[in-house]
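A note from the maintainers: we've had questions about how concatenated examples are separated. There is no special marker in the raw files; a new sequence line simply starts the next protein. For clarity in this README we add a label.
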Amino acid sequence: MLKRRKTGLALTAAIGAAALAAPAVANATDYVVTTNNDSATLNSCDGTTNECDTLRDAVNAANNDPNDDTITFDSSLSGQTITLTAGEIGINANQGVGSLTIQGLPGHTPTISGDANGDGNHNKSGDPPDSRIFYVSGDGEPITLSGLTLSGGYAYGRNNGREGGGAIWAGYGTNLTVSDDVFSGNAASGDSSEYDGGAIYTDGALTVSGSSFTDNHADNGYGGAIYADRGATIRNSTISGSSAREGGGVATDKYSGPPSTNSFAIRQFVETHTPAQVQAKAATMNPQDFIRSTLDISDSTITGNTAKEAGGGLYSPTLLKLKNSTVSSNDGGFSGGGIESSGKYAQSQIDNSTISSNTALQGAGMDVGQFYGNVNDNNPATEPTVKHAVQSSISRSTISGNTAGGEGGGINVLYLAAGDRFDVENSTLSSNKAGGSDYTGFGGGINFSQEVSGELADGGAPIAGQFRTINSTISGNSATTGGGVSLGGDPQSQNPRVPSELSGPLMTDEGSIDFENSTIASNTASSNGGGVYLNSYYNAGSDAVGSPTLSLTSTIVGDNNAGGGGNDADRADGSSDGGLDSTDSLVENVGDAPFVQNTSTITGADPQLGALGDNGGPTQTQLPAVTSPVIDKGDAPARLNTDQRGQNRTVEGGAGDVTGGDGTDIGAVEVQNPAQNPQTVAALPQFGDNTPPVIGLKVPHSLSIAQLIRGFNVTVICNEPCAMTFRLYGSA
């Protein structure tokens, strides 16, 4: 019988003649692995010291131990490799067995390898064959792997019914944590079916922290490094150099159900009912029967990953939360170089992050497809259409330097369902590019793709929800057409999947594309629409050609270029309707785009913007000069208290408000100390040219009590090499 060393706690106290004893806490067992050997023959661990000859022996002991267990390694194994020659090691996570922690030594050692012959290749028929490293099954006891390197794991085909997970496969109901681990050179593959998760496949709860994933692959499936069917929480980790068919770095599913005969029925119920109905149904079900997946990533880097079809960095058909993270230099193949966010439950919440230098045919930075449709796409006429209203946002983030071969260098919006909303707030899209040798490029910064006739089951248009850009800058982007923003792709679709279909309308009556308190500037198109391009489409049931309408509120569209000349807004030739619906904005060079409505919009004036740079705040912006015509000529909704940088909105500059305006500056940036009433003062000592300098004062137009208390700036401006700023304070 295996003996174990146990630790516990008992407390006895005497009160008068009575003795009260507190129960002991759960016992724990510590096992120590002493060699880097592996064998199919299991041996018992030492009953006194709990020392085990092999890692396999230690895990086997823990599997049969009802206590919480920890497996550690003798210090002699530092820098060593444990090569599995007897196949994967199974971990029992059933309730009642107790938790298990496998704790490595400093320096992420030992390395545990599934490369049985050590040749660096993945061999299914070697002697012995390469194998997965761990498989975890059970119903919820926590499993933690920490401080290890897992390398060379290989999952081929259906290993005991388990597909994918080159290093780790964790089944339904498991609770897996990997902390401070290194995953490298793991793979999952098969001849035809999907084999997901080059390093990790999980259908349970997954938490990743402080770990790195490099050179992992699932080339026929999802998730080059990680596939998380129920989503995952990832913190302070790096995922790089990995590949898959979809989700080169990480992929997840939109929801998960138990592996049982009723799983399909549950999923079908979800597909055919609204979220409120699903929530009501879920209240009557086992909580484990339905879980909506969430991919929650923060303080992490996703870089240098590749997908054949979609989602070079991340593939998420469900809720994606991305915060304080970088998604860079990934290749998405067809779509979503950095991020692919598409599906009936797709939703994104991106904050204070950078999406840069990614590539794809469409949506190089991010591809968005929030749609609703039918359960059975092959028979749309007989299946119900269901709306799933969600709100997505990108805030305080930078999307830059991404390159799309076709459409949407920064963001490509393919679908936005009725009731959905997508907000880009306090963010900058810069130096993105759309277009290459094979396709005409549309929308260097943002592209809104047009409907391909017959593609949507309800016969509608792809933008049925509300897309808003608020307090944001679109600058320095380039494309063949629509350097900054393009509404609609080529009337002869650029989509290689349906090259012969004609495009239909971009928006339904419910849909809208709005730019509020934003700046679209310094973008370039080699053909048409340096700033904004409104493409043409064929109206349903007629041969009439129209274009969409873009809404501008307190927005700058200026300093853009097309075909070598100034061009800020352009509408496709031959269109009979569509244009700009503009209020309290500035459009420097209107081009061929007519105003369908114009309320207090400035045209033909230079906005006098500075170069894109650091003007404060988390993102780069273009700051207007103090003499810019945008000063005080805009309007801000009540909810908008700050500009893109986080500085005060509506700082009066004394330039006079427009009718219906509130004195806000047009554009993404509010000038904090606008020029006010320049005054010539008495001549000062003359310089060598005997010409007195022209001097003016720049002071706030109005002051609040708070500004009087904390002080305000008065700046002396002159045309000679002199500059002085005084800070004045009020007093009671």
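[label: protein 2]
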Amino acid sequence: MKLPLEKGKSYIFSFALILIAAIGFNTYLKKNSMQEFEDSLEASQEILYRSEQILYSVEHIVLNTRGYILTGDPAFVKPITSSRIGIIKNIQSLRNLTKNSVQHSRIDTLTLLVEQRIQFSRRFIETRKQNRLSEKERSITVSRGEDLMKEVRNCISRIQTNEERSLKNLKATHRKSKESFNFSLILLLAVIVVLFIIVFFSIKGQTLLKAKSEYEIRKNNIFLQTILNTIAEGVAVVDKGGEIVLFNRAAEKILGIGAADARQHKWWTSINLYNPNTLSQLEPTNTPLSEALQGKETEQMELFIRNESLSGGAFITISARPIRTDGSDLTGAVAVFYDSTDRKKQQDEILQLNIQLENRVKERTSELSEAVESLKRNKDLLNETGKMAKVGGWEIIPDTMTMKWTDELFDIHQIELGKLPDISEAINYYAPEARPIIEKVFQNCLESGVEWEIDLPLITAKGERIWVRSNGKAEIKNNRPIRLFGALQDITESKKDEQERTKMIDALLIKNTDIEEFTYIVSHNLRAPLANIKGLASLIEKGDIDDETKMFLINAISISAKAG
């Protein structure tokens, strides 16, 4: 059975759309496949780049290690830590980029080898610092380091070889996908051309139905008016002469003007519209709808309206645009507006709240500024107190082994402010006999959080030998120290005073012994004359002696007294 012409065109058009959709979907899948290739290609290239960066960083560590071994310059040691951090980041990037389990295994091996090589360099450096490396040991150590480096290179080479093989396979697959995509795209364009031809002839046939369509348009206008009367926004449409074409019920309610009154005159030129910011009335030619008839667009303009029906006035928000035909000829204008009085009140309330908030923020900012200034004054006071007491503070983060000093600690060590030594260099400032002690208490605190406070001799950067009181403790979290901190006080003067007191006490003890011996001698010498005087006095008291004998005894007493 032969299908009617119009029905046949409809079937062909539907078929063409289905075909376009199918080809388009296939093209979309191909494009996604190509995008996946691009992502995989980028990931493989990134893996190759990251692996090269790891190899470069390890070789950089090796070069710095050799530089330190040859020269002993600490400047070669500091870049090792930053290189290690870069290696860790690059290895993590390799893990994130790689989805292959075999590659993950190789990356694990690479991580172990790199860490072994870094630890080997550190042990090499520590041995060199202590000058315990003989020529034979240096040769053996260098050979071991080269073996480790060779293993690192081989591991990276295997990772790169696998990625290059994957790249080759991806490119071959991409080439086939691209050919299929191009074919689908050409087919899609061909179908679209056919569809355009069908549409062209369909449009040509539809011209004959224009007269019938005009009736439908009038019918639809009535339907449109019904729809417009159901929406909350006001809608007003005018032709290019300014005559009202559409004016819905919401517009009547918002503006306080009936549709009949609106059609009798150009209401938008005579209605009282005001600028809400300046309270000045708009000129008739400057209203949004008037400007739309001049080809200008207005977007979300806020206005204030007042008339007999709206004695208290109301705020409205209006948008207006010109209506143009396909030839860009202006045929009228449309305005859409709504009552924004409640929203305006809310905005005013929000504005007041914002002002209050800004004032509060200013007050808080002022308080914070005063607090910052107070903290600065407290810090200055603390620094001055530290200088007077010769006390400096320090802090060490165990995870990174980074250290901080206060200004006074630099003064105690007689080091230029800002030239912070590392931990091993700081320990080396202690006198040789004190280093094992400070190393032991530091290690106990680092491992178990054991506090310490000890007096030890220290040799400053200028070679001056002083005494310091060192104390430290640990901040514990999850059963492990996360921060070590403490203080160092220069107690040289108090040590000197203590030594002087010891000398004085020893001298006083010697003098006390001398005084005891002298007292004994004096006591012995005093007892003999007193005994003589007592005996002579007893003879005189008896009274049976003559005057001559009595005078003799009295002279004897006088002589004994003088002898005493």
